[in-house]
Known about the structure:
The chain is α/β, with parallel strands linked by helices. The protein is about 45% helix and about 15% strand. It contains ten helices and seven strands.
Amino acid sequence: MQPTNYHTYDEIKSQTEAWAQALEVASASSLPKAGDYDQVIFTGCGSTYYLSLAAAALYQELTGCFARAVPGGELLLNPRAHSFGLTTSLDTNYDPSEKRTGFDELLSVTNVFLPNEKEAVSLLGESNVDLAASRLGSRVEALAIKLGAEGALGVREGTRVRVASIPIKVIDTVGAGDSFDAGFLYGYLNQWDLEKSLQLACVCGALSTQQAGGIDGQPTLEEALSFLK
């Protein structure tokens, strides 16, 4: 008989492999070195805040650059965040009540907004995602809307781009949105253009659906990059 929480237990056991993948990505990336910045801040909400604690320690060990973890809510709501040279990203959850409490305040301190199609349309009360993208794209530095199997729609500096997803056999969509976010933010932080960032985001999101759970299907950076044109 399977234990009640066996999915959670399996995910906990997979953390060693996840950290090995993180080290692989870190080793392959051009990480800032000590002296490039006064400090680097990692952030997360809920359980991901605890991951940010570990990530900050790992980053500092690898680069020699001072790093620390800050709860996401504290960072996002800090009016001085942007004056410190920090960038912020926001991925919302759909609110069935559609009250959208506090959304405008959060968006005003957000650089990168990463909703899905349903969230984008609902947040603005628009009839379709293109209208929602026009309005949202004018309020943030970069907008990336997840369209599921249809790919993604992005807006940055007045430029609108649609990219297709890759054909994939879907097993489980849990964590696909988070993987999409990771791919897009990698491109954004490495100053890629909007189209290439969206392509990597779609690849990361799609590949993560090939296995059950939110971690096991996540591709390495090398695997994801192999799908880019």
